[in-house]
Amino acid sequence: MRIGIDIDGVITNFEQYVLDYFSKYCVENNIEYKINEIDYLTEKTFEVSSDITDEFWKTFLEHYAINEAPRRFTGEVIKKLKQEGNDIYIITARWTTNRDDEIGQKMRNIVKAWLSKYDIVYDKLIFSKGNNEEKVQELIDHKIDLMIEDNPNNIMQLSKIVPIICYNTQYNKHSLGNNITRCYSWYDIYNKIKDKN
Q1: Tens-digit pLDDT profile for the chain (197 aa)?
Q2: CA dist., res. 101 & res. 103, Å (int)
Q3: What is the DSSP track for 102-169?
């Protein structure tokens, strides 16, 4: 089986990083915020302008990319999946990785070094442009059989063409459908994939 795996929110706990660091950033910079419901978009979660979130990510993206550890047992489970004959495709649309300049190259190198540091094995690393159509095309072009995803828009769009394992978060709790299986940990993912084989 060809398994596609997203990074942010699947391999990492993107949701908790944003809650921790963005609230700290707001307090330290006297930015008023209010959390009513957690959304995939930081500005919606904190009810602030997109300019503020852009400034936050300009400041913290590299810190996040280098320092945020993978979720518990991620590398272990991916290695087991690989050893059992599955092909692993890491498909990410991380901010700036799609740029054709020095900044884009730097972020792509950070991603590669980070995956190596945490011994996360894969057959192919794909830097997607990020929009739904692009990720759909990546899945089609690489004949992906199953995608592990957290982005609610991607989950709904991609589930039209392949089965999706949705890594459970507050921001994707409404992502439901016949082709969507919700999972809560990496060993839960492993168990559900074994059930599909």
Answers
A1: 999 999 999 999 999 999 999 999 999 999 999 998 999 999 999 999 999 999 999 999 999 999 999 999 999 999 999 999 999 999 998 888 888 899 989 999 999 999 999 999 999 999 987 666 788 888 999 999 999 999 999 999 999 999 999 999 999 999 999 999 999 999 999 999 987 76
A2: 6
A3: HHHHHHHHHHHHHHHHTT---SEEEE--SSHHHHHHHHHHTT-SEEEE--HHHHHHHTTTS-EEEE--
Predicted TM-score (pTM) of the model is 0.95
85 burial via Cβ count (<10 Å: 0-12, 13-18, 19+)? exposed
